[in-house]
Design goal:
- By secondary structure, the chain is mostly helical.
- It has a domain of 163 residues: Orthogonal Bundle (MetI-like fold).
- Helices cover 76% and strands 0% of the residues.
- Helix 4 packs antiparallel against helix 5 and helix 6 packs across helix 7.
- The protein starts with a helix and ends in a 6-residue tail after the last helix.
Length: 306
Amino acid sequence: MLAYTIKRVLGAIPTLFVLITIAFFMIRMAPGGPFDADQALPPEMEANLRAAYHLDEPLYHQYARYLSGLLSGDFGPSFQYRDFTVTELIMTGFPVSLRLGFSAIVLALFFGALAGSIAALKQNSKTDHFIMTLSMTGVSIPNFVVAPVLILFFAVTLGWLPAGGLGTGGIRNYILPTISLALPQIAYIARLTRGSMIEVLRSPFIRTAKAQGLRTQTIILRHALKPAMMPVVSYLGPATAGIITGSVVIEQIFGIPGLGRFFIQGALNRDYTLVMGVVIFYGLLIIAFNLLVDIIYAYLDPKLRK
C-alpha cells in the first residue's frame, strides 16, 4: 500500500508542474495588465511599478523567479491588494470556501447515496422513476441557474433565509449556497448509486445472504452498501473538482468572501499573482482529493494495488 501511495504522489508532481506552466503563460497572454486603469498612469510611474514587480524582465526570467518563490511557499505579492500577499489572501478566503465545499460534498454524499439506494430497491416503480427524473433535472440545470431561483423563492418571496453574504457567519447564511453547490452532485451520485446498487443486489453473495434469512436492512448495510459505493468513491475526485470550480460562481452570486471572489476580482483586475495563486491552490486541492480517492479505492479494492 505504501509503494502504491508513493507512486501516486510522484505521478501528481508533473501534473502540478504542467498546471503552473500553462496558467503562468496563459494569464500573460490575456490583454491588459495589472496597472491598467480608467485613467492611465504617467509613463514614469508605470515603469517604476513594473520594475518593482519585475514585470520589465523577460518572460522566462519572470517564470524562473515565480517557480523559485513557489518552492519556498511564496505566491508573491498581490498587485491590487497592495497591503497583502497572495498567501495572506488565500488563507483569508480558504476557510470560508472549505466550510462551504465540505458542507456541499457531505450533503451530496448523504442524500445522493440515500436517493440512489431507494431507487435501486424500488426499481422500475413510481418512486424510482420520480427520483431518476429529479436526478436528470439536477444534472441538466447548472448551479448558477439554481442559485438565483433559490434566492428568489426562499429569500425574496418567503423571506426564510438570507439572500447573500455571511452576516454573523451563522448556519442560515450557508444553507442556500450549500444547496446550490450540492444539488448537481446529489443528482450524479444518486444515478451512480442506483446503477451500482442494482448490479450488487443481483450478485451471488446477496442471493446467499437472502437464502440465509437475513433481514433486508442487514443485507443492504452490511453486504451491499460497501461494494455499491465504490463507483461513488471513484467519482469523489471529479465531484470535488466540480464543487470547487462551482464555488467560484456561487460565492460571487451570494456575495461570500471566499477564494472564488478573490479569483473573479483578480481576473478582472489582471492581478497576475492572485489569479496564479488561486489557480495553483485549487489545483493542489483537486490533485490531493484525487490522490485521496485513489488511495481509498485501492483500500476497498486490493486488486488495484497490484
